[in-house]
Write a structure and sequence with these properties.
By secondary structure, the chain is mainly alpha-helical. The chain is built from 21 helices and seven strands. The protein has a five-stranded parallel beta sheet with strand order 3-2-1-4-5. A two-stranded antiparallel sheet has the order 6-7. Helix 4 links the parallel strand 4 and strand 5. The protein starts with a strand and ends in a 5-residue tail after the last helix.
Amino acid sequence: MKRRWLFADQLGPHFVDSTDQPVLLIESKAVFARRRFHRQKAHLVLSALRHRAAELGDRAQFERAGTYREALDRVSGELSVCQPTSYAADRFVRGLERVEVLAARGFTPSRGDFEDWAGRRGAKRLLMEDFYREARVRLDVLMEGRNPVGGRWNFDHDNREAPPKQPTLDTAEPWWPTEDEIDEEVRADLNRWERDGDVRFVGADGPRRFAVTRREALHVLRDFVGNRLPGFGPHEDAMLAADDWMAHSLLSAPFNLGLLDPLEAVERAEDAYRSGAAPLASVEGFVRQLIGWRDYMWHLYWHFGHDYRHRNKLLARRRLPDWFTELDADGTVQARCLSEVLRGVREHGWVHHIPRLMVLGNYALQRGWSPQELTDWFHRSFVDGYDWVMVANVVGMSQYADGGLLATKPYAAGGAYINKMSDFCGDCRYNPRLRVGPDACPFTAGYWWFLDRNADRLQGNQRIARQLTARTRLDDLPELVQQEEARGNSIP
């Protein structure tokens, strides 16, 4: 039996073929030296690798080296590996003579089946909703025969409630893992590497909040389904300054480390609905994130091709400012939504999907920041960020840099949206109703500036036609444009 090479995002039992298959694990210091990752992301990856090596014991050959090639020089015999999750890693393993590359695992359907589905679409555009419905039927998830349970495929409308008029959701606090001696060793190594000048990080250190072992990941899954899934749906898109976690699962990091197969989470969530322990809207929303959005992003990463990451239809080329990339929001950024979200990234390496899309991504879109720089920043700064995750999510969904291949309209919004879906605006020095003047909200003003700057490029998109027309009726548009051009990348 060939030794199975497991990358750091392939650490679950479904990436080996038997309980006695020998395993290779490689810890490459160069990975962290090449790019400036969030401190907690580096900790998470190294802790997960080292915990897996400890679990496997003598089954694992665990090599710590500067580079993968250095480590592979110490390994004898032939290897097999499940398809890696990035173009760079995939090219690397396919260029090694003694490595057999197997099909990817942890996603449905296979890449070949996805391409068949995409090919059957013909001239129609690819839509996640169509992909998701087909997956529900194919996997027999939340179905009654050939029909969706509850008579509806999508409960998204029910899951868009504004936050309650209280500081936090009335939901159980997440279960937190306990750090151990392996975490202490990882922290000591990272401290030493940083002191020696070998690596540099952004963000704050620990405590570790995310699962790094299969046992921990299963505990998080059980805790979420049992205690937090019932409250997940209604406020899925809401934001609260004093509640970083709300009712979200915190499973994206262990999923992307390969510790869980998404289908086992889907089955557990469906069981909660069938037993009456969780409402359909919450369960459907969670299921859609896994066999809908997550699978869809994975397949589009490969379907669109390597050059997709370079798309820039809106010609957005501004560099990301240091106050953003350094997560330097404490006491400097006065726009409270940005300040709070950047604080969350600094402290945890994580915020949920709406702060990512409608605060961070929205502001970058309005300012005209480089989609490629933003994709790299999300990849490095989030504990669940990987190339396959961020390319389509940022280039296509968040920044509309593909001109509409993924999203049907730009995800740009003014301060009114943030005011509706969060409690950020109440104590902010800016007024979300104002677009011009010293108290004008940077998001409200930035929204109209974005439309005006890109009006020609957005012509023909019927989903934004009314807003483009409305902009021409603004009496203060010239003053607004001058104001936002002067603001530029300065700290809002």
